[in-house]
Amino acid sequence: MTSRKEWTTKLQSNKIERTFEHHLYAKRTLREIKILRLLHHENVINIKTIISPKSLKDFNEIYVVLELMETDLGSIIKSDQELSLDHIKFFMYQLLRGIKYIHSAGILHRDLKPRNLLVDSNCDLKICDFGLSRADIPELYEAGSMTDYVSTRWYRAPELLLGSEDYTKSVDMWAVGCIFSELLTRRPFLPGSDSENQLKMIINMIGVPDKETVKIC
């Protein structure tokens, strides 16, 4: 097993393809890079540098150099590797610690899921993939509101499924709860087949929301 000192000196490059194929891809790439350069925390992936092309003519893709992590939480959950309660507590502690820091910076991740939680050989966890993240600041919303089509379906909060454009950090906390359940059971908590089925599964679990709640959404 690689020691902590040796491991933290290793890097990996993340190739971002089709960056300029569509303006939305370019915006997501720029957003992720800007956010990663802003955030500095033990439980958030650390961007080291960006490898630029030799010329503008070759500027079709971007290489982002990150600290090296062995695997992700999704792969661990699907594996035969034993997950003790101590493992689960440690992973959840780090996830909550990281998301608290992200939220304190006024940022919503909006795509928390096991695959976006990187893990190294010491069980250190780091949150990654900020391509769908947004600043929780009204002045920075596009067209006065935030888009609702964010987050992978199984981890999507009910207000997003109901089409809310005025949501808060609670959408991330819903995803955290789904991840916690998945760690305990080794299977997705609410594996809906589509958005309608996902909402039905949520209602079957927590009951029908009252009219005021639906009105707010």
TrEMBL record:
Task: Cite the Protein kinase domain residue spans from the record.
Answer: 1-217
Q: Which UniProt keywords apply?
A: ATP-binding, Kinase, Nucleotide-binding, Serine/threonine-protein kinase, Transferase
InterPro entries reported for this sequence: Kinase-like_dom_sf (IPR011009), MAP_kinase_CS (IPR003527), MAPK (IPR050117), Prot_kinase_dom (IPR000719), Ser/Thr_kinase_AS (IPR008271)
Residues annotated as signal peptide:
none
Under Gene Ontology molecular function, one entry of this record is: MAP kinase activity
Q: Output this protein's name.
A: Protein kinase domain-containing protein
What organism is this sequence from? Answer: Euplotes harpa
Starting at the broadest rank, the lineage of the source organism is: Eukaryota, Sar, Alveolata, Ciliophora, Intramacronucleata
